[in-house]
Amino acid sequence: MLVVKPGQSIQLALDEAGPGARIVLEEGVYEETVWIRHDDVCLRGAGRGRTVLAPGGGVLPDIPKLHDADARVVSGISAAGVTGVRISALTVRGFTGAGIYAHTVSGVSVREVEAVDNAVWGVYLRESSGCEVVECRASGAQYGGIALSFCPDARGEITGNDVFRNAFGIFVDNSSQARVLRNACRHNAIGLMLLNQIYEGEPEGGVRDCLVAGNQVFANNLASGVQPDGLGAAGPPISGVGLALIGTHRVSVVDNRIHDNHPSGESVMGAAFTVGSSKDWGGDDALDNHILWNQVTGNGPLDFQLGCDLDRQTIWGNRADKGDPVDAKGWNP
Questions:
Q1: Is residue 177 part of a domain?
Q2: Closest Cα to residue 43, out of 8, 120, 73, 35?
Q3: Nearest Cα residue to 177 out of 153, 193, 158, 197
Q4: Do 134 and 207 fall into the same domain?
Q5: Lesser CB count within 10 Å: N end or C end of the chain?
Q6: What residues make up the domain containing 229?
């Protein structure tokens, strides 16, 4: 184990330790970028707000460009093509890219991390597996606070996080086998979105076999996709949405509380809980999803909007006041 103090180089400690490094960061501010380029690395701080990584010097990692970002942007902690990365108990703030960016990493764990005011993404895990984001706080990102992107075998756990002031609080983007449990998604443009959509030049898409349960999704009232350099600039206008399933297959949405979500601007989705097709964007219809025992109340203009074949979904025991279609089964006032 190596202990690093403020004023010393985290990168130097990582490189000298090599594979299997255990780096402990003492309390204080570290102004540098960090590139994890060895297997089985553990990077642990003294706690959120106590150990802080902020922009400064350091190496620029030779890894794939961050999606939806200029190639010149800089992320706080980056890793690619390695296995067994664990990051915990620190704050990453103010970077022009992502707070934490993992690409093609097998076994990546981010725990008790605060990612705040990083310009593009908070915690962004792409084309990776064994993904874990637990008890983190992510705010102030132009796109997702926490995102799994193109992780077809994510085996992911996104649990107990607090996400706010992002375009998308939690974004499961063309990723499968993820469990999204007991998170607070608040004051975003959309609290939680699962999206199957093919992009030109990107890997095969799909969102399958996920569980979304026990989340508190409320007061998502920001507007994204409106200003050229604002929240969600590359996407369509979205505002006032709690949870959306777009083109998903076999996703179970169970016992979530979705309330007090109201749009403050234009939105392509018309309800706090939305199920829809992504066929027009290279995806698929929403099929074989299970929507059970959710409370969707106090939202505007609608609590739910189901743009899907209702015979291909299992919907039961939910509570809502107003929805489309008005006679949809499985919803009670």
A1: no
A2: 35
A3: 153
A4: no
A5: C
A6: 197-333
Amino acid at 245: L
- Angle, CA 111 vertex, CA 240 and CA 46 arms, to 5°: 120
CA distance linking residue 198 with residue 49, whole number of Å: 38
The mean per-residue pLDDT over the stretch 42-58 comes to 95
Residue with tokens 């077809």: 152
Phi, psi for residue 90 in degrees, rounded to 5: -155, 170
Mean local confidence (pLDDT), 131-148: 98
On whether residue 182 sits in a domain, the answer given is: no
Q: Are 92 and 77 in contact (CB under 8 A)?
A: yes
What's the token pair of residue 303? 């609590």
> pTM here?
0.97
Cα of 68 vs its chain's centroid, Å: 14
**129/205 same-domain check:** no
pLDDT, residue 318, reads 98
List the structure tokens of 290. Answer: 């299970």
- H/E run at residue 10: helix 10-17
My answer on whether 229 and 134 are in the same domain is no
List the beta bridge partners of residue 106: 83, 129
Token readout for 119 is: 């310009």
Rg value, the chain, Cα: 20
Q: Mean pLDDT in the chain?
A: 95
Distance CA(106)–CA(102), nearest Å, equals 9
